[in-house]
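Whiteboard transcription, Tuesday session. T.W. wrote the structure tokens on the left side:
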């Protein structure tokens, strides 16, 4: 067995350099804790970037995977797959949706949504309806299509020409959105709460106003809930707290409690726009991942996880508010459920490194925003332990 230094040396030789990685070599996880190959333990307040909402290796997810793995790993989507059907039923029963297309990631779910809005709008309104309006500071994925949808120039640099048909407006500005609509517009795609963009909450009434505007102009509304869906904000889906329903929603990250999965959920009205042969995915909705998805969704709905998320979220918010009072470089604390951002007036990268050394995993987005994404099963004691580590780091600044 190699130690961390040996693994990192090997990684440097053959792993793509697409990530600036921290010097942590992960070995195993349980609940909110992660251990590296040297046996050091970390409190995980990143949770695989909102994937491990049920903590690491939740026993129900592990059991579902083990049982399904012994039964059937893969079969083509040319055939019907019971676990896929059951997961679709759960998702539709608990959302606005009627239909589910399964894929393997958030970017793929958004690709599916962009194909659907173009296809439906062409059929319903004619050739020139193809443009999608998204928000500045949004994040929708890393594929050639989703970097065009993402409202951040930096993700596109060097990959031009950019796929045409996207416009960006400031998140939260209904007037800018109205002004951006043209005869070519077919849809608006938003994260109900922006994750990568720095935990940006929608102003009160904004998403409702977006819904009304879409209805007025005959546009489809897509919510990208890849990061904030599946319980993260304290309700099963983030849109529920806004009193607004989209036409299409994309999910991925936490949907299967760890394993890779993506899903696009949509209304019956659009079902014929994606008929046989128009879209597909070899692995999408495979038995293994959808079995995990059933276990993850059932656990989320039945085991008090959402209640815990709301209660611990309130506690986390309270404790983070103390940091704002105590440290002049803390500009703002904002969030909902268990996604919180602490905006600093200084760079956050070193703070993250210091926390890692002391056994706390956090992340910093947009340079200055520390992001807290603990598993939704986190306890008060774990929050205290994490924030004591962070406090120790902040005190030395
Ligand atoms: C992570 C993320 C994606 C991309 O998901 P991948 O599985 O990495 O392709 C898309 N949208 C949002 C809001 C995300 O947070």
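and on the right, the sequence the group agreed on:
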């Amino acid at each position: 067995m190699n130690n961390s230094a040996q693994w990192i040396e090997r990684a440097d030789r053959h792993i793509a350099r697409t990530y600036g990685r921290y010097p942590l070599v992960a070995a195993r996880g349980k609940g909110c804790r992660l251990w590296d190959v040297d046996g050091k333990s970390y409190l995980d307040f990143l949770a695989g970037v909102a994937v491990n909402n049920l903590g690491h290796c939740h026993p129900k997810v592990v059991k579902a995977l083990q049982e399904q793995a012994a039964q059937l790993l893969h079969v083509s989507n040319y055939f019907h797959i019971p676990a896929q059907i059951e997961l679709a039923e759960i998702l539709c029963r608990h959302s606005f949706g009627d239909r589910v297309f399964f894929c393997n990631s958030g970017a793929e779910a958004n690709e599916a949504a962009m194909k659907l809005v173009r296809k439906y709008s062409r059929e319903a309104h004619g050739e020139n309806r193809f443009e999608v309006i998204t928000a500045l500071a949004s994040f929708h994925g890393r594929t050639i299509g989703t970097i065009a949808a993402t409202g951040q120039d930096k993700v596109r640099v060097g990959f031009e020409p950019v796929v045409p048909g996207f416009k960006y407006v400031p998140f939260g500005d209904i007037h800018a959105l109205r002004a951006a609509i043209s005869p070519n517009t077919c849809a608006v795609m938003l994260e109900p709460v922006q994750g990568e963009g720095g935990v940006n909450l929608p102003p009160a009434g904004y998403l409702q106003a977006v819904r009304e505007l879409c209805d007025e102009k005959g546009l489809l509304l897509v919510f990208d809930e890849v990061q904030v869906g599946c319980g993260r904000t304290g309700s099963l889906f983030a849109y529920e707290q806004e009193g607004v329903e989209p036409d299409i929603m994309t999910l991925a990250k936490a949907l299967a409690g760890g394993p890779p999965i993506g899903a696009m959920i949509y209304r019956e009205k659009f079902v014929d726009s994606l008929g046989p042969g128009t879209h597909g995915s070899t692995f999408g909705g495979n038995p293994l991942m959808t079995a995990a998805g059933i276990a993850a969704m059932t656990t989320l709905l039945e085991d008090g996880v959402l209640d815990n998320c709301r209660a611990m979220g309130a506690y986390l918010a309270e404790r983070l508010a103390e940091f704002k009072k105590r440290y002049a470089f803390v500009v703002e604390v904002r969030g909902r459920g268990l996604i919180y951002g602490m905006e600093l007036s200084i760079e956050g990268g070193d703070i993250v490194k210091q926390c890692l050394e002391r056994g706390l995993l956090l992340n910093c987005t947009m340079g200055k925003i520390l992001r807290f994404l603990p598993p939704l099963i986190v306890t008060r004691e774990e929050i205290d332990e994490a924030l004591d580590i962070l406090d120790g780091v902040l005190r030395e600044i």
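Someone added at the bottom: Residues 105-107, 110, 139-141, 191, 195-196, 224, 226-227, 252-253 surround pyridoxal-5'-phosphate (CB under 6 Å).
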